[in-house]
Amino acid sequence: MENFEPEIVAFCCHYCAYTAADMAGSKRISYPSNVKIIRVPCTGKVDAIHLMKALEKGADGVYVAGCLAGDCHFKNGNVRAEARVNRVKKILTELGWEPERVAMVNMSAGMGEYFAQTAREFTETIRKLGPGPGKFAGTNDKAAS
Amino acid sequence: MQNNNSSENTLSPDRRVLVIGGGVGGIRAALDLAESRRDVLLIDKAYAIGGLMTQLDRTFPTNNCDLCTVSPYLSQGARERHLEIKPMTTLTRLEGEAGAFTATLVTEPRYIDTDKCTACGECAKLFPDAVRVTPGLDPRAPTCMRYPQATPFAFSIDITKVADMAALKKVCRADAIRDDDTRRESVVDVASVVLSVGADLFDPAVLDNFGGGKFDNVVTGLEYERIMSASGPFQGNLVRKSDGRRPKKVAWIQCVGSRGINKGDVPYCSGVCCMYALKEAMVTRERFGDDIDTTIFFMDMRTYGKDYELYFNRARDEYKIRMIRSRPHSVVENSATQNLSITYALEDKPVQETEEFDMVVLSTGFRVGEDAKNLAGVLGIDCNQYDFAATHPFNPVLTSKPGVYVCGVSESPKDIPETMVQASAAAAMAVTDLPVVPVDLQTEDLFAPERDVRGQDPRIGVFVCDCGFEIGGIVKVDKLLADVCANTDVAVAKAVGYGCSSESMAAIETMIQENHLNRVVIGGCSPRTHETKFQDLLRRVGLNKYLVEIVNLRDQTTWTHMNEPEKAQAKAARLLQAGIAGVRKNRPLIDHTLPMSQNALVVGGGVTGMTSALTLADQGIKTYIVERAPALGGLARSLRKTIEGEDVGAFVQDLVQQVTAHGNIQVLTRSIIVDHSGMPGLFTTGIQTGVRMNYMQIDHGVTILATGALAGRPAQYGLGTHTNIMTQLEMDSMLEDEADKIQAMEQVVMIQCVGSREKENPNCSRICCQAAMKNALRIKEISPDTQIFVLYRDMRTYGFQEEYYRKARDLGVKFIRFSLDQRPEVVEADGSLSVTTHDFILGCDIEIAADCVVLSTGLIADDETTEDLALLFHLPRTIDHYFLEDHVKLRPVDMAQRGFFLAGTAHSPRTIRESITQARAAAGRAQTMLAKKEINLGACVAKVDDKKCASCLICVRACPFDVPFINAEGVSQIDADKCHGCGVCAGECPAKAIQLLAYEDDQILAKLDGLFER
Amino acid sequence: MITAEQKPIPEIIQYIAPYGKILLVGCNECVTVCAAGGRKEVGLLASALHLNSMKQGKTIDIKEITLERQCDPEYVEELTPYIDGVDAVVSMACGCGVQTIAGRYKKTPVFPAVNTRFMGASLGQGVWAERCKGCGDCVLGITGGICPVARCSKHLFNGPCGGTSNGQCEIDPDVDCAWRLIWERLKELGMEDRYEDLMNAKDWRPGGAGGPGKIIREDLA
Questions:
Q1: Which residue in A has a C-alpha nearest to residue C58's C-alpha?
Q2: pLDDT (tens digit, 9 = 90+) per residue, B966-1006?
Q3: How many distinct structural domains can be found in chain A?
Q4: Contacts (Cβ under 8 Å, ≥6 apart) of C90
Q5: Which of residues 22-41 of C touch B (CB under 8 A)?
Q6: ipTM over cut 0.90
Q7: Residues from chain C contacting residue B993 (CB–CB below 8 Å)
Q8: By residue range, what is the domain housing residue C150?
């Protein structure tokens, strides 16, 4: 696992985190290409199952990026999202997986640099943890469907 | 589809506005008018619209590629039903008066039918001399289309060079060549005219000292842009013309032809060159390597726009661009190497320096061209001494002739954001000469009926935009396309150049139809900016707009991983696969609509707020002004004179009277906003008003933020400790009220940038240099013998303000530069003041006795107000607490939150003149929204599956907006017209009975599958 | 409503360790409403079990299905097409559901994934509290609508024990003393005198003490 390149999914809300990610781009701030974004209208849409399924399908880490506390375009979607992230952390702990594989981060639309920073930090965290569940699956790909 | 020909447009001739000039300003004005359902005729003398902006490689301060930021606007232009575009057309006569002009137009023959021409280029291949491929101003690139997203996308023919017309006609398979085309004159009735022809760029060949036009490796700023541009003569390679080598040392020389008094110079400042030089230098290092040494020779660094100072700091500190404060004497070419020696003097050194560079860029500015001068004559408008259209400080987009408005560089040198603002303002003013549009105007449906694709197997088209260098320069588009072909349901996979250009859009439309595609994936820019555009494309070909997925290959891939092309490639491939997997699951959806409130709320009753309110109210829009203070007027109440000498007090008084008397305006002073709800187009805002703080609610469709800024008063240089240490604002009053005190002063010292351009407040306050000049000149007028010293860091008298700076110097005002590490000190001894500062030219500290020290304290954001409102309205702010607009360049008065518009000093520091322009622009933009009459709620709403619903109430309790309820059937019901589309209920439902349309679980899981498919 | 909560996942894992093909069955009634065993929890548990087997480098085949009600044989019948293809069933329903399945499919082991806790009421989003013991002889009519069986830790019938302090239960100070609540409620109703009524020793047989309960409605049966 010398050259382990973690695969990371970031669920980003349209109004803040996704915009921040675009902002990082327009400022040409680089972050690890390991992070792949799935856009959602609000992090409140992100179901605990989506996080679990991401790990199951092959992600080594998943995070949810929403608006700053109190700043959610939809009032409290980010708070709901965080609660679900915590639930998944608990499940992972019960299963003997590292809870750090899922995370919640918050940022405003203008925080392109912070988006890049969290992407870097999360990637490093996962790199240290090593491969996630999907990598142990062997020939198990079909089970995901 | 691309062009509006006369047979299909529905323009009513008595209600149109003539926009002259198809640059970015003219396009903005025309689009604003068309969006407000006003008929517009846009003419341009060139073969294609787009103007100067399309020639630029990138634009500041975002450093984006212009082609892709402007082109959505251009092809929007080709689409709008209310907009007719006539290229190669000029105005030759204008008769009549505002509301009823008769305009005579002349259209030059193109010899090509733009409706038939597909721009295949066969004619140009065979007859390169006769066919104009609109090469623009770059003669070195005859084979390059002027720019790839040209509108109209068609060639034109130079008939004088055609030897064999029959042969030429034969090569055209589209049968588009019309040898019988002639110069046509037409007469149209127009209600008003917007002038936006811009200006030419100075040709440095007339100067004999910099080698412009003489040495191969001396280029103008614009030529440098073309060299760097992906659509330029070297396909985006930075090379020297003399030997094709990449330069290692590039120098920029500022103010070439501007701010001068010598032969060929103009005295004004061109306003944009400092920023574009910084941009070019930054992009050079970013794109072509850190090892290219970049140096800028400048006199004053004029980065006075919003956050521009931060841009300058980044250029200097992060990009390590060398800044030399000097106006070079000459450029000499080494005949052997074609390298260039620049000779220059430094302010603190007695001898001249000479340094060799590989390439020299001359930062040339704006000049009004002959055509524009003639046009001013045809229009019958007054111009200033430099031939720019003259306007009044309190009515900045109206020319001397009623009904004729002006925007952009036609009025004064300015950058793109300022041009956009002025264009929207001019459009808002041009509307006033038209009859008010009846409220019940029907919404038009521009699109063909939809094809039913339900039950069909996916036939997917994948179109990847190379976006010039932006995508295609980093990743191999061919490889991406080869990869996606592994999906058996991908029927077409094609690269589409600039995907958002008219040409590519048309090509995609054809491919969708020819291949019977029912799903589309676009790899290109962010869906945030480009989704609507491609959704419209689908609607044009009869597909539901939700059958497209936009894959963000630029903003989130090539831009962020530009230094790791292999990783960018891998990521792009994964994202495309996720897009394909996702689009398979997309379903046709229907947008929901609601009628829009036609009221407006203006927050803030200063000059900006009052101007916005009047502009709206005159158009029949009920407008509420909410002002915290007991009276209207704002900061302008404490200002007496503008730099032009206009009486601010009388102007404000007049505004207040107009506002108070207006039947459509309700003024609520002593009022604060306490709550806010609703959605764009249907807001409800609660206020507490009057001395008793009565609560009331206002229903409104749009909100204009005009909350202003505060006069800065930092505790610096002894401000507040001595009566003779004052701000420019206090000096302004003293000049009006206590002239005798001024006459008694022997020496006055002004200190600039007090509390601005410092760590705590890093931006430039923009207004202080002109305020200092204004007051210095007035002091000199009252008391010619008073000595005035201005201690400055950079004099930022941009545009025509330069005139006042020059006049002050002529009158003997002394200017002494200081730097932050050697800042002046104000010393008080026995009640009298003196200022000590370092003189860089003398090389020592000097002490100046001062009867009065005037501090240029500028403006600071009203942190408390903007914070409160930002929280209530969910709006973003800048780090220095001003409101943050949606797009600094293209949407400078629109906020990201729809229905909110921004104007005046709540945006950033600016003069009254600039605030008025912005106020009108914000009102104009608000009108474009209100003109839609209904709110499109989109299709992204929660939907309950009755069969699965367990009536558990979890959605009812979880919804942030209290929308779901258990209906008579005993299941949860979520009304589409109330749902905000956040999806919290869907994420919470324990029975998985709720799906958020467009983001359904199977769509998200499919995207995950796509990301991890091996 | 029956209120349940999910078992610790390791316990579930232990049950199914020997098996490779699992039928995971949710219930769209009570356990959906208390968010313990509806369609969503089925999905989450399935995913968790997958993640677990991945850790061991194994594969596990899980078929997810959620029935309208697991305590009715007709609904349970919907499992028949799948049952032969699986090694074991994991039920996310209450005990009634688990037993209905076990009763129908004799050859396939059935394991519970939730602990059935009590009959409860919702106090708000995500909070449920026990309100009924199913004693078979309801006394709410004389206790002001507050049940001393379910809400008094000692199931006392004639006033509080001596342990009540400041109106809270001595077993758990977070629990209100049921008899304090009964007293306050009766006072509000102006029925303080009812408090004096003595209750006879309770007959616990209808509630289960007389063997498993059964109801037969002859008009329906």
A1: A137
A2: 999 999 999 988 898 999 999 999 999 999 999 999 999 99
A3: 1
A4: C12, C15, C16, C22, C23, C24, C25, C45, C110, C111, C112, C113
A5: 28-29, 32-33, 35, 38-41
A6: yes
A7: 39
A8: 133-207
